[in-house]
Design goal:
The protein has two helices and no strands. With 59 residues, it is mainly alpha-helical. The protein has one domain. The radius of gyration is 19 Å and the shape is elongated.
Length: 59
């Protein structure tokens, strides 16, 4: 999704189809940035829960 927040701050009009080159460039930049991030810590716990490993909260 691509929006012009100066004229559409409610994000009602998706401009990705009208500007595919801009969308593709921003998507590539986001993917590059996202690959450099640390994996979300809750994803490990979700994976463990699927394997039947439960976590106990410390009280």
């Amino acid at each position: 999704m691509l929006f012009d927040l100066d004229t559409d701050n409610a994000e009602q009009k998706d401009l990705a189809g009208k500007h595919p080159e801009k969308y593709a460039g921003l998507e590539a930049q986001w993917k590059s940035w996202n690959q450099r991030n640390e994996k979300a810590r809750w994803e490990d716990k979700r994976s463990d829960l699927r394997q039947g490993i439960m976590y106990q909260s410390k009280q």
